[in-house]
Design goal:
The protein is α/β, with parallel strands linked by helices and 242 residues long. Helices cover 32% and strands 17% of the residues. Strands 2-1-6-5-7 form a 5-stranded parallel β-sheet. The two termini are 29 Å apart. The model has no long low-confidence stretch (mean pLDDT 93). Bound molecules: adenine (ADE). Adenine binds at residues 95-97, 144-146, 148-150, 153, 156.
């Protein structure tokens, strides 16, 4: 997968060079490229924002630097080891609190794509005409990571890139762990324990020491169900995948 990140703060993405995502890049499973939006401006102040048409507070990001940056990234070939499909449309992701909710299902869908471009805004957002123009070149998705407002979309990008890329086959060492974690089956994950069985006056549930895999699995399922009903009744009311 090829990922292009366009921002006025490209250093924000340095954490994506660490740990599993850093290793996936070294192994050629993933190519993450960062671009400074200000490199696509033409005035001496390298300005990317302007007052909102119609008045109001704050500043709006001008569409032209974004259009030039998008044209640039779409024209760049990927490195040899990163799969690219000539037919598949790239997906442009615009993080915004006014977008559809980014869920595990969205992460799964996006992990199956070959080229993602992220356009995180600062200020009051990007001139809407950029989104309309870009939809001729890409599939555009406006995504929110939750019902709260961040100072800019960069931290939302880090969250989304991590959630998406860990689902690419080969990125996580133990892929079985993906199947059992929270949200993979519509439920929150059951509680987990390790040895020793006694720790500071607390004991792990006896069933986990029974060696009976069917009983352990049934216990975990009932714990996951109980936890989901108690903590996230909104998820419990939605149809579950199994
Ligand atoms: N930008 C600001 N707040 C955001 C949010 N909640 N999700 C995605 N992008 C954002």
């Amino acid at each position: 997968m090829k990922i292009d990140l366009i921002s006025i703060l490209p250093e924000f993405f340095d954490s994506l060079d660490l740990s599993l995502i850093g290793r996936a890049q070294q192994d050629g499973l993933l190519e993450i490229r960062r671009h400074n939006l200000r490199d696509f401006t033409s005035d001496k102040h390298r300005s990317v924002d302007s007052p909102p048409a119609g008045g109001g507070a704050g500043m709006v990001m001008k569409p032209e630097p974004w259009a030039l940056a998008l044209e640039y990234v779409l024209a760049q070939p990927g490195e040899n080891s990163v799969n690219q499909s000539a037919t598949e449309r790239p997906v442009l992701i615009i993080p915004t609190p006014s977008g559809e909710l980014f869920t595990q299902q969205a992460a799964q869908e996006l992990s199956e794509q070959t080229h993602l471009v992220f356009a995180p805004a600062r200020f009051e957002g990007i001139d809407e005409r950029f989104t309309d123009w870009a939809s001729d070149l890409c599939e555009v998705r406006r995504l929110s990571i939750g019902d709260y407002v961040l100072n800019g979309g960069e931290s939302a990008v880090v969250v989304m890139v991590e959630a998406i890329t860990r689902l690419i086959p080969g990125v996580i060492g133990n892929e079985a762990s993906l199947e059992e974690e929270s949200h993979s089956d519509g439920l929150l994950e059951y509680p987990v324990y390790t040895k020793p069985a006694h720790w500071r006056g607390q004991q792990i549930p006896d069933v986990l020491l029974s060696g009976n895999h069917a009983r352990i699995e049934a216990w975990r399922r009932s714990q996951a169900e109980e936890r989901t009903q108690r903590i996230r009744p909104d998820l419990w009311e939605r149809p579950q995948s199994c």
